[in-house]
Automatic annotation (TrEMBL), chains A, B:
Stored NCBIfam families: PRK05261.1-4
Family: Belongs to the XFP family.
Domain Xylulose 5-phosphate/Fructose 6-phosphate phosphoketolase N-terminal: 19-371
Cofactor needs: thiamine diphosphate
GO terms, biological process: carbohydrate metabolic process
Name this polypeptide is given: Phosphoketolase
PANTHER family: PHOSPHOKETOLASE-RELATED
Species of the source: Modestobacter caceresii
Length: 799, 799
């Protein structure tokens, strides 16, 4: 429990002003929820002044505004740049009110002016069709966090704080959100935050007793329990509680002030060279009533301090006179006539409480990261390129050169204070994913004493490894939205753990693009590796390409899916993704040794084209005739199997006209009207013709391709093979057999679909079936020394 | 720190036996990873004895086996039924070894016999194509948990403990898994576990210093910190640490024994009537070296106790003589010749350490829940049916009658001790989702003092509300896999939070069905409500039907998707789902007032059919002519818009032959070969003809339907409208307009696609466009009092 601040620290007149500012914020919050007219109560409230559709969440709002008032005071006093992350995103009207009061709202939305008409618009637009949503959203100035899907407040806050040495991120964690898995996991910030080069996160655990209906677990825990929980994870909690505004404001002021002082002390020590890896970062626990300052009782039932204050405490105001009277009493309790001038502007003494310019939390460039972003300093790719003497003749670990590129990106973007503008986030798999070259220039980050048995570990390392996809992705989102660059690399199957975060981030970017005042931020690039086809050693739980299916239906303005078949195409596509803004890029490439096909130059051309005919692999003559069949592939393993199939066809049926198409930009398959990358009809037809059957080997679930192809000419002629959810611990070749995508399956399908039946076709089918039988025989016998058919290279079979 | 047990508690000869049993388990673990021959080292080890493909995880295994040994001792002493949940699932070989030693493995897999040939098979099959996966998986007797995707050990453990008053679930939490969000969130078990009627969870936090590469956060935390963390959440931790097997076994024995005693004490007090809601449940923190008893150093580098022991500590054994010698030394350190008889059977004194029969953890019916399951006692549906005097004439909250049904299911399945066999799991939204009738017979569960402001809350309540989809779903999975019944009800959009858990559960059921010894368990039924179309008040973050797309590609043997259009169809389908086994059912129905169409009898017929022509809504004559166009719908809102469109067409173009088809079983659209519910071709053609254009209004993303339709005649004739990721806080009608699925859009599309152009078609298109223009006008003007077009009923327009 903090001691109450003294009047020397917080003179009464300043407290009075802050309380009046808070009254104004609360007034505007209630107004947004209830009023469509009579915004400043110039006349008695009538039923007709009330919105017909009452939406919004009052319960959490007063607490959010109280903290805003105190942070404003801190910023005025200290000039510390602060970012406000509102975990309880449904407290949207409180944040809209606060940014309106400080003037930033009207700067980005001039029609919501700082006068009575503006207040009127502010109220009318809230939770109204065509207006603003009820959540703290991308439309809210100063926000990097929506707070609709709960769980990510602290990870976003931490991401913004990394490499922002001056910044303090105040992050409100609602007692509901505190029950989620991701939020529970994200309290471990002190284990990853480097006081020397990172900014600070000041969590404010806001306990107000109830969620929608139930009491939350922390709301029914003692201060001692909460203190034990936070202390054990590296925090030094300060408790503030009460329902008397004056007393709570004094306590909260002291808590914010002393927390900030302590943060600066910790940072000064670290930046002076101290090595204290567990300094005990301040955290505030704020207990205030749900619906604080709202109606205490309605219809004889307690409302304030209960779950009934969660959304709209007075529900009958459109028709019930008593409810209407209560609403008017409630609104007038804030004395709006003393807060707003005759013109409806905030009175000058309250307007003066706003921090200066860009220090206003609604105007901070940390929340509009595009303003802070500089393009990533990328080296030329040539030095990382894999030597490809001939297509499909050599093996290389496809992700390894990318690791070398990222190593040099780290080197070029690291600043003198040990910070920088680029980070790699990965759940303890950087080396497993073959990106270990980054450790030549930086380390894994952990705030701990380093032991001799540790491997590239340091409190000042900047590769973020934590065994949580939620943390990795959330940190990166916060890092990007505050103006930096990064990559999230993960096992493909476990990318689904944070799939819902991907969806929410796409939604954010989709809406952000419609707001001219939001500057573009770096894209979220997710490298999916250790893919289903080559997670043969880990088995079925590690085999799942589902994130592809999750992103396909999302905004075409945002989503990109790349399936580079080899190392140089991965380099080319990665460069493109790292340069891009406002996208979510899925980059899918396995880490194991794979055949390499294209030189860097060819890779650039292939990636730019999105899909190409690989003439060298096909058997079309140069003439005008259409191919007999098209073999298409997207992804590394499908490409190899397709090429092996093409080679078998070339050997056995050289007169057959086989075209080989490789697809790297998956969204190119969508009709052009449905995605900006969708090929125009003519380009699509050039690749796939209008009527030739296509045998398509695909990295993911086969029907994902079918959904993309709707709208293309005769989509039924596409015969897709891919991952059919058949897997276990087995060999790579057995995986393609189990899922019917092996070269032999592709050959059989191609012969079945070919326009013309080649001479030795039946014989070739028998050969393929025999190969598959032989393989099944191996597996039945548990012969773990089964020969690996992957030891094949293009052209080797031609002898 | 627990005091070391005395020799009175744990006589030396018993300790010696347990240590020898442990040596046998470790020997079998190393053998599984390395050996393909010479299984019992009857001759010197040769390179040829070693597998060519070394897979598996040694690091965590000895700790898992040590705990198994101590739990066996506890079970022998006390007869307490125990379930072992191995969070570090990649410690699979340890659990396989333990269940082999106790005999259960050979009972379910007789070919892996208890002799030398059996040991040989045990080794050969591990991580081998066609053999057993490297993870603790569905194939492992005694497991309800795979542990590949980390995070769910404790939720599965808790789910099994609910309503299992005698059971103790020992749950090993790895230090890597402890970093995940879901696991971090799931330590709050003490807030939800009722000592009176539930069993106990005994977590064992296993710290061994490293994940794949990095040290874990808890591994670098002090005992004091860990104690603070656990204590604050209702646990009473006991610490065991060391690397001397004898000493650790003594400490661990004491920890397990005293924990069990304390659990029984807590339970006895609660069952005697005490109301202590925070008893402090025992938890063990076990610190042992990674790769304990493995090679200390390899090639001059420390291995034991470091990340290098994570998987295969000796990698060069196939060719490197020194490595091979180390492996032989390691294997022989366990003295296999003293553990196995000349026949290769475990020596009798060690075999005698196995608990009796069904108390062996590999044989416990709690881990093979189908053996314990009795069909759910469901009442007749008639009493819950909504009265439907005519189709589309009245509104009702579709989910409300389901709540009444679940209320009576609770009532019928509650046992005298306050437990039972059915639970509802929901993230604080039971009332919001209109299932509040359940509170007539039970309460929300929270271990807390109940306050006057609480709403249907009790420590003995059995509705599980926690604001975490991970916890809700994971608890239910554990509850089902241990033989009970339940439903997970959640906001549709946030079902994506636990989408990866759905995938993993489908994989589990898919493989379980191939194992004759696993008895069928109740299906996982997920009610998705508060759907995208009617989350208009919460906005874009709450609008996402993506779980549909996640499950479509998964095992057709397991996945079912139901889209009941109204309350009676929901009842019918829910009954079907609650009776079913081994499926994952998505049940999608909104909670708001919706039009009601079918009587219960009609609903049963419709649900059984999967899809039907709704003759009353169409304008086909009875003759032979094909319809001009088919209007199809799947989902409640799409059904309403489709019917309104049909009515407009009937009014304006009565001569047009319009067929209305309603689809309730989505998987029926898949070809019959691809899903057991897929309609045979003839049935599909009867509904949709072979060549008529179909305008399909769909609940989810439109291309989801297109992916299902591949393989049907002329799929390009299907024109699907659905959720196109357009949303915000707005009105229900604006949502269907934004996503181009409104009645007016459907009419325009139907007229465009109709085989014949009706007389007043152009006029009707103009009318529809005018209606849409008028709507857009409303929205542009922010008229929140915009009339709600949803206030329409079937036939009302006919006047």
């Amino acid at each position: 429990m903090t001691e109450q601040g003294t009047t020397a620290d917080y003179p009464d007149d300043e407290l009075d002003l802050d309380l009046r500012w808070w009254a104004a914020a609360n007034y505007l919050t209630v107004g947004q929820i209830y009023l469509r007219d009579n915004a400043l109560l110039r006349r008695p409230l009538a039923h007709a002044d009330v919105k017909p559709r009452l939406l919004g969440h009052w319960g959490t709002s007063p607490g959010l505004s109280a903290l805003y008032a105190q942070l404003n005071r801190l910023i005025r006093r200290t000039g510390t740049p602060c970012l406000y992350v509102a975990g309880p995103g449904h407290g949207g009207p409180a944040l809209v009110a606060a940014t309106y009061l400080e003037g930033t709202y009207s700067e980005v939305y001039p029609q919501v002016s700082r006068d009575e008409e503006g207040v009127h618009r502010l109220f009318r637009q809230f939770s109204t069709p065509g207006g603003v949503p009820s959540h703290v959203s991308v439309q809210t100035p100063g926000s990097i966090h929506e707070g609709g899907e709960l769980g990510y407040a602290l990870v976003h806050a931490a991401g913004a704080a990394f490499d922002s040495p001056d910044l303090m991120v105040a992050c409100v964690v609602g007692d509901g959100e505190a029950e989620t898995g991701p939020l529970s996991g994200s309290w471990k910030i002190p284990a990853f935050l480097d006081a020397r080069r990172d900014g600070a996160v000041l969590p404010v655990l806001h306990l107000n007793g109830y969620k929608i209906n139930s009491p939350p677990v922390w709301g029914r825990s003692s201060d001692e329990e909460i203190s034990g929980y936070l202390t054990s994870q590296g925090w030094a909690p300060v408790f503030v509680s009460g329902d008397d505004p004056r007393a709570v404001f004094r306590e909260l002021e002291a808590a914010v002030r002393t927390s900030h002082d302590r943060i600066r002390e910790i940072q000064a020590a670290a930046r002076g060279g101290a090595e204290d890896v567990r300094p005990g970062w301040p955290a505030i626990v704020l207990r205030t009533p749900k619906g604080w300052t709202g109606p205490a009782q309605v219809d004889g039932v307690q409302v304030e301090g209960t779950f009934r204050a969660h959304q709209v405490p007075l529900s009958g105001v459109q028709t019930d006179g008593a409810h209407l009277a209560l609403l008017e009493e409630w609104l007038r309790s804030y004395s709006p006539e003393t807060l707003f001038t005759a013109d409806g502007a905030l009175v000058p003494e309250l307007a003066a409480l706003a921090p200066a310019g860009g220090l206003r939390m609604g105007a901070t460039p940390y929340a509009n990261g595009g303003l802070r972003r500089t393009p990533l300093d990328l080296p030329a790719l040539e030095r990382y390129a894999v030597d490809v003497p001939a297509p499909g003749a050599t093996f290389a670990q496809t992700t390894h050169p990318l690791g070398e590129l990222l190593r040099d990106v780290y080197a070029r973007t690291t600043t003198e204070d040990g910070g920088g503008t680029f980070r790699l986030f990965c759940p303890d798999e950087t080396a497993s994913n073959r990106l270990q070259s980054v450790f030549e220039v930086t380390d894994r980050c952990l705030q701990t004493e380093v032991l001799p048995t540790d491997d590239h570990l340091s409190p000042h390392g900047r590769v973020m490894e934590v065994l949580s996809e939620h943390l990795c992705q959330g940190w990166l989102e916060g890092y990007l939205l505050s103006g930096r660059h990064g990559v999230f690399a993960t096992y493909e199957a476990f990318a689904m753990v944070s799939a819902s975060m991907v969806i929410q981030h796409v939604k954010w970017l989709q809406h952000a693009a419609t707001l001219p005042w939001r500057a573009p931020v770096s894209s979220l690039t997710i490298l999916l590796t250790s893919t289903c086809w080559r997670n043969d050693h880990n088995g079925f739980s590690h085999q799942g390409p589902g994130l592809l299916d999750t992103v396909i239906p999302l905004s075409p303005q945002v989503v990109r899916v790349w399936l580079p078949p080899d190392a140089n195409t991965l380099l080319s596509v990665a460069e493109h993704c790292l340069k891009s803004t406002d996208h979510v890029n899925l980059l899918i490439a396995d880490k194991q040794p794979h055949l390499q096909y294209l030189t860097l130059e060819q890779a650039h051309a292939h990636a730019a084209a999105g899909a190409s005919v690989w003439d060298w692999a096909g058997t079309e003559d140069d003439g005008e005739a259409e191919p007999d069949v098209v073999l298409a592939a997207a992804g590394d393993v499908p490409t190899m199997e397709t090429l092996a199939a093409a080679e078998l066809l070339r050997e056995w049926a050289p007169a057959m006209r086989v075209r080989v198409v490789n697809v790297i930009d998956l969204m190119a398959l969508l009709p052009h009207d449905d995605h900006p990358h969708g090929f125009p009809e003519q380009r699509f037809d050039e690749l796939f013709t209008r009527d030739t059957d296509v045998v398509f080997a695909f990295h993911g679930y086969p029907r994902a391709v079918h959904q993309l192809l709707h709208g293309r000419p005769d989509p039924a002629r596409f015969h897709v093979r891919g991952f059919e959810e058949q897997g276990t611990t087995t060999t790579p070749f057995d995986m393609v057999v189990l899922n019917r995508m092996s070269r032999y399956h592709l050959v059989i399908e191609a012969l079945r679909r070919s326009r013309r039946a080649p001479e030795r076709g039946a014989e070739l089918v028998r050969f393929c079936r025999a190969q598959l039988d032989r393989h099944h025989g191996y597996v039945r016998e548990h012969l773990e020394d089964m020969p690996e058919v992957r030891d094949w290279t293009w052209g080797a079979g031609r002898g």
